[in-house]
Structure prediction request, 281 residues.
Amino acid sequence: MELTRLVRAALEEDVGTGDVTTEACVDHTLSGVAHIQAKAGLVVCGHAPAHEAFAQVGAQYTAKVPDGQWVEPGTTIGVVEGPLRALLTGERVALNFLMRLSGIASHTRHCVLHAGSLRVVDTRKTTPLHRALEKHAVRMGGAANHRFALYDAVLIKENHIIAAGGVGPAIQRAKAAVDGRFDVQVEVENMDELRAAIEAGADSVLLDNMDDVTLRSAVKIGKGKVLLEASGGITPERLPRLEGIGLDRVSMGGLIHQARWVDLSMRFQSSPGDGAKNGGE
Prediction:
């Protein structure tokens, strides 16, 4: 979804008919400045939706470190200024985007460091309507993106194979249909399917839920013939073992769906409102 509409929907969800607490407690004439700070070491990500959230409520957000940069605890990652009511009303939506996306970038960085020279990519296991933001966070963490959606790549999976009548027929039909516009990747679960995929002319093969021993066998069969990607059951702890097997890359849905939010806080630096600060909600 386009960012302006996504953020507007998020604000509508949170603000509804009005921020009753802020409107009741805070004089509409007051303005101030607040700093958003990291409460732990993390990779920063999410400035664009934070900027948009504050802009839509009438405040100005300025990034102090770029997306993709590692920061230490206590680092100010962004500054927001404007009417105090706007700062308070936009705070939670802006922080939610920053905390979620920085969490994905930080977890991705952790995985990439474990992977060494092995290339790590994401999957389509993303939060509905947040895919572009989440895949951006993956890149900021140092990994790469797999296909974005159904329209920009061919990936033949188990149910496609069943519906098409086998690995070979599925690949042949796909290659004829796309006529060179896309590479054709197919998911396989055993060595017979891998051999069939190679014979049918697949460009790349996704080795699904195979243990290390089986992956080594797959590399012996397919190395140099097709791109070899392992997926399923890939954890950060397993990545160092996989690095030396000879795979071309691994895909990890967990880069996104297993990432934990990071902790950020927004604090007023000085204001006519006696230095009010955010609560824990």
